[in-house]
Amino acid sequence: MDHTESRDGTAGTDERTDDPQATPEPEPTPEPESAKKRPRPWVRRLRRTALVLALLLIVPLVAIETTLRINYMGDPADGTYTRNRDAMWLGHAWVDGRKKDADVTALAGRLKDTGVRDLYVHTGPLEHDGTLPKSVYPRARWFIDAVHRELPGVRVQAFLGDVLANGGPEGLELSDAETRAEVVRSAGQVLDTGYEGVHLDLEPLHSGDEDYLGLLDDLRKVTGSRDAQLSVAAHQIDPLPHLHSVAGFVADHPKWWSQKFFGQVARRVDQIAVMSYDTARLFESTYGGYVAQQTSLALEVTPPTTHLLMGLPFYYESNPSHWGHAETVAAAVRGARLGLSRTDPDRELFGLAPYIDFAATETNWKEFEEGWVR
Fold first, then answer.
1. What's the pLDDT score for residue 11?
2. Strand, helix or coil at 256?
3. What per-residue confidence (pLDDT) applies to 252?
4. Cis bond upstream, residue 70 (ω within 30)
5. DSSP one-letter code for 76
6. CA torsion 254→70→318→200, rounded to 10°?
7. How confident is the model over 56-84, as a mean pLDDT?
8. Measured at the alpha carbon of residue 258, what is the angle toward residues 252 and 260, in degrees to the nearest 5?
9. Which key words are in the record (predicted)?
10. Which end of the chain, N or C, is less packed with Cβ atoms under 10 Å?
11. Phi/psi zone of residue 278: left (φ > 0), alpha (ψ -120 to 50 degrees), beta?
């Protein structure tokens, strides 16, 4: 076998892999940019569509939130404080036997130096056929008498509510004439008990419901003949034109009424209380701006002879429809004052309505009294 001698004197083969003069292997030629793999056409179209949809959702949302934040700016006008025409929603415990004389005394102490002059005490719920068993409010007469004793001049109204059939498989059917007639009879029944008004809360109520308007006309005849109040809890008003139509298409529980329908309801009642909470606003400033907007929209279509009230969230929850850190009483009060200042600062038939007594915190009461009570 033939061998060659390596540089270090050891035997080696004829291969010259260590030879510095050996010719290197050529570098691979880069693939042209145009030859690189591109996304398929349908992938590109999907990406563009996703971008457009994101912009369509994000841009209006940012615009709305910015508008509401601006709407919360500025100072309320002097004198936009309580007109001593406020109201409050109360729970069912006041009429079913759970509350005692000491509880009424404590309630009176809490309300004495505020402007609350109407109490909406939960007396239902109505049965789905519109009837109201007397067994569900056995202590109503006791409560009415106790309030008159402890809080002279404060009215007690029967808060009657039910879920409507359009919100699920069961509920009160407003399109049924006999059901509406039973609701009217139930109203007369509570007035016979001694209540000084009927407060109706039917949800979810679609904007433009003619059967509801007809029911209010019939109820007004009953309350009017007895010199009693007819009041209702109202949905919020479209913050954008025709938003109630979009909500009604997407969900069975529309949050908004058209401003026109709100005005139609307001003209049929003595008091209308806007449920201006559960707004899904993320920030205290945008919630306050939303309440200011709602106040202005409501004032524009509520006749001066109808008492308008803006609801306050006297409770704390955190969920997609109600963020407790944002929906504060302080923001709601300031928002209502701003809306009042800009639209009708001298209006007398205006007030605020806390919801609800059994969930109220000391912070709720403090913010209400400091921001509104003078």
1. 39
2. strand
3. 53
4. no
5. P
6. -40
7. 85
8. 145
9. Membrane, Transmembrane, Transmembrane helix
10. N
11. left
Count of CA atoms in the C-beta half-sphere (13 A) of 145: 7
Distance CA 224, CA 187 (A): 12
What contacts 350, CB < 8 A, 6 or more positions away? 83, 85, 299, 307, 308, 309, 340, 344
Q: Is the peptide bond before 204 cis (omega within 30 degrees of 0)?
A: yes
- Model confidence band, residue 37 (pLDDT cutoffs 50, 70, 90): low
The kind and range of the H/E element at 368 are helix 362-372
In the predicted model, what is the mean pLDDT of the chain? 89
Distance from chain centroid for Cα 92: 22
Q: Calculate what percentage of the chain has a pLDDT beyond 70.
A: 83
Cβ-contact 307, 272 below 8 angstroms: yes
Lowest mean pLDDT among 41-45, 221-225, 318-322: 41-45
Considering only CA atoms, which of 222, 201, 185 is closest in space to residue 123? 201
Neighbours of 216 (CB within 10 A): 17
Specify the DSSP element, H or E, that contains 162: strand 155-163
Residue 372, amino acid = W
Strand partners, 160: 200
pLDDT of the residue at 242? 54
Task: Compute the radius of gyration of the chain from its Cα atoms.
Answer: 33
Residue 5, pLDDT above cutoff 60: no
Cα 92 to Cα 125, 181, 188: the distances in Å are 9, 24, 19
Closest CA to 361 of 326, 317, 309, 323: 317
4 is written with which tokens?
């060659």
DSSP secondary structure, 265-322, as one string: HHTT-SEEEE--------SHHHHHHHHHHHHHHHHHHS-TTSEEEEEEE-S--EETTE
Rounded Cα gap, residues 140 and 156, in angstroms: 10
**Residue 224 dihedral angles phi and psi, to the nearest 5°:** -65, -35
Locate 114 and state its tokens.
Answer: 């505020």
Which pTM does this prediction carry? Answer: 0.83
